[in-house]
Design goal:
By secondary structure, the chain is of the alpha+beta class. It has a domain at 2-116: Aminopeptidase, CATH 3.40.630.30. The protein has helices at 11-24, 36-47, 95-110, 124-132; strands spanning 2-5, 52-57, 60-69, 79-86, 114-120, 136-147, 150-160. The chain has a seven-stranded mixed sheet, with helices on both faces. β2 (52-57) and β3 (60-69) form a beta hairpin.
């Protein structure tokens, strides 16, 4: 069991982890699983600035967590968004908690002030998970996404990582941490 930096070779395994969330739940608002090329583009866009980690056991990727910029305008540069996906058989084993314990210090060292988790209201387990890790609900958007024959809301949760009143610089790329 180990946490390591995700690589291009992990794309198929990460897509396999993500697939049931897209196809069988409203936890992801995507209707179709991204192609490998689409997922690769997302991966490369994220890792240019933020960390992307995997959980590996016996050579198999069973989960991953990543962060990215939460918004595009310059004044938002101190805000990151975080996500975690685990193989369904690996939930409730503390893997998500360990991935966050590895990724949040990186974001803090980069200079991020706040991290957001954007969670569909259908995913009560993720809301409870984030609450247990110190995230607080800051916004709720009811009935904003339609999937699997019903309306679902979205909850924005946040966690303060740093409290710099006047940060001296924008967050640095995670490769510099």
């Amino acid at each position: 069991m180990s946490i390591r930096v995700a690589t291009l070779e992990d794309i198929p395994a990460m897509l396999a982890v993500y697939q049931p969330y897209v196809e069988q739940t409203a936890y992801s608002f995507e209707y179709q699983l991204p192609t490998q090329a689409e997922f690769l583009a997302r991966f490369q866009a994220h890792i240019a600035q933020c960390p992307w980690l995997v959980w590996e056991e016996d050579g198999a990727v069973l989960g991953y967590a990543y962060a990215g910029n939460a918004f595009v305008r310059a004044a938002y540069n101190w805000a990151a968004e975080i996500s975690v996906y685990l193989h369904p058989d690996c939930q409730r084993r503390g893997i998500g908690r360990q991935l966050y314990a590895a990724i949040e210090p990186i974001l803090r060292a980069q200079g991020y002030q706040v991290v957001y988790a954007v969670i569909t209201t259908a995913n009560a387990g993720s809301i409870a998970f984030h609450t247990a890790l110190g995230y607080e609900v800051t916004a709720t958007f009811p009935r904003c996404g339609y999937k699997l024959g019903q309306w679902h809301g979205v909850v924005w949760m946040e966690k303060r990582l740093n409290r710099d009143e006047h940060p001296a610089r924008f967050p640095i790329p995670w490769s510099m941490v």
